[in-house]
Amino acid sequence: MAVKIRLSRIGRKNHPYWRVVAVDARKQRDGACLDNLGTYDPIKHEIIQLNKDGIKQWVAKGAECSAAVVKLLKQDVATKNS
Protein backbone atom coordinates (compact mmCIF):
# COMPACT_ATOMS: atom_id res chain seq x y z
CA MET A 1 0.00 0.00 0.00
CA ALA A 2 1.47 3.35 -1.08
CA VAL A 3 0.85 6.11 1.45
CA LYS A 4 0.95 9.79 0.57
CA ILE A 5 0.90 12.80 2.84
CA ARG A 6 -1.27 15.35 1.10
CA LEU A 7 -3.96 17.99 1.59
CA SER A 8 -7.64 17.20 1.99
CA ARG A 9 -10.14 20.00 1.57
CA ILE A 10 -12.68 20.85 4.24
CA GLY A 11 -14.63 24.04 4.76
CA ARG A 12 -17.49 25.57 2.86
CA LYS A 13 -17.86 26.97 -0.62
CA ASN A 14 -15.43 29.84 -1.36
CA HIS A 15 -13.88 29.44 2.11
CA PRO A 16 -11.37 26.61 1.77
CA TYR A 17 -9.66 25.02 4.72
CA TRP A 18 -7.18 22.19 4.30
CA ARG A 19 -6.15 19.23 6.43
CA VAL A 20 -2.75 17.59 6.10
CA VAL A 21 -3.50 13.86 6.06
CA ALA A 22 -1.77 10.53 5.49
CA VAL A 23 -3.88 8.59 3.00
CA ASP A 24 -3.65 5.60 0.69
CA ALA A 25 -2.52 6.98 -2.68
CA ARG A 26 -5.40 5.19 -4.45
CA LYS A 27 -8.10 6.95 -2.39
CA GLN A 28 -9.93 10.12 -3.35
CA ARG A 29 -8.62 13.50 -2.24
CA ASP A 30 -11.31 13.87 0.41
CA GLY A 31 -11.70 10.15 1.12
CA ALA A 32 -10.98 8.26 4.32
CA CYS A 33 -7.60 9.09 5.79
CA LEU A 34 -5.21 7.02 7.86
CA ASP A 35 -4.02 9.89 10.07
CA ASN A 36 -4.79 13.60 10.49
CA LEU A 37 -1.48 15.49 10.69
CA GLY A 38 -2.44 19.16 10.68
CA THR A 39 -4.56 22.00 9.35
CA TYR A 40 -3.92 25.00 7.09
CA ASP A 41 -5.95 28.15 6.38
CA PRO A 42 -5.09 29.39 2.86
CA ILE A 43 -7.09 32.61 3.18
CA LYS A 44 -4.98 33.85 6.10
CA HIS A 45 -1.89 31.93 4.87
CA GLU A 46 -1.64 30.47 8.36
CA ILE A 47 -0.65 27.00 9.49
CA ILE A 48 -3.03 26.29 12.34
CA GLN A 49 -1.49 23.02 13.46
CA LEU A 50 1.22 20.75 12.07
CA ASN A 51 2.29 17.46 13.63
CA LYS A 52 5.90 17.25 12.42
CA ASP A 53 6.64 14.15 14.50
CA GLY A 54 3.72 12.33 12.88
CA ILE A 55 4.91 13.37 9.42
CA LYS A 56 8.43 12.11 10.20
CA GLN A 57 7.02 8.79 11.38
CA TRP A 58 4.99 8.32 8.19
CA VAL A 59 7.97 9.28 6.00
CA ALA A 60 10.12 6.78 7.90
CA LYS A 61 7.54 4.11 7.05
CA GLY A 62 7.80 4.99 3.35
CA ALA A 63 5.14 7.66 2.83
CA GLU A 64 5.74 10.38 0.23
CA CYS A 65 4.86 14.04 0.76
CA SER A 66 3.04 15.94 -1.96
CA ALA A 67 4.53 19.17 -3.33
CA ALA A 68 1.99 21.26 -1.39
CA VAL A 69 2.91 19.60 1.90
CA VAL A 70 6.62 20.17 1.25
CA LYS A 71 5.86 23.87 0.68
CA LEU A 72 3.92 24.02 3.95
CA LEU A 73 6.78 22.40 5.84
CA LYS A 74 9.25 24.91 4.39
CA GLN A 75 6.86 27.77 5.21
CA ASP A 76 6.53 26.55 8.80
CA VAL A 77 10.31 26.35 9.22
CA ALA A 78 10.74 29.83 7.72
CA THR A 79 8.15 31.37 10.07
CA LYS A 80 9.75 29.69 13.13
CA ASN A 81 13.20 31.07 12.18
CA SER A 82 11.95 34.63 11.62
If you had to describe this structure to a student in words, what would you say it looks like?
- This protein has 2 helices and 5 strands, in the order E-E-E-E-H-E-H.
- It has helices at 52-60, 67-81; strands at residues 3-12, 15-24, 35-41, 46-50, 64-65.
- The chain has a 5-stranded mixed sheet.
- Strand 1 (3-12) and strand 2 (15-24) form a beta hairpin.
- The termini are far apart.
Question: Mind sketching the topology for me?
Answer:
Layout: E1 3-12, E2 15-24, E3 35-41, E4 46-50, H1 52-60, E5 64-65, H2 67-81
Parallel strand pairs: 1-5
Antiparallel strand pairs: 1-2, 2-3, 3-4
Number of helices: 2
Gyration radius from CA atoms, angstroms = 12 Å
In the sheet with the most strands, the strands line up as: 4-3-2-1-5
Q: How would you describe the shape?
A: flat
- Sheet with most strands: 5 strands, mixed
SSE run = EEEEHEH
User: Which structural class do the helices and strands define?
Assistant: alpha+beta
Mean pLDDT: 91
Query: Got a strand count?
Result: 5
Helical content stands at: 25-40%
Instruction: Tell me the CATH superfamily.
Output: Ribosomal protein S16
Task: Report the uncertain regions.
Answer: none
At the fold tier of CATH, the topology name is S16 Ribosomal Protein, Chain: A
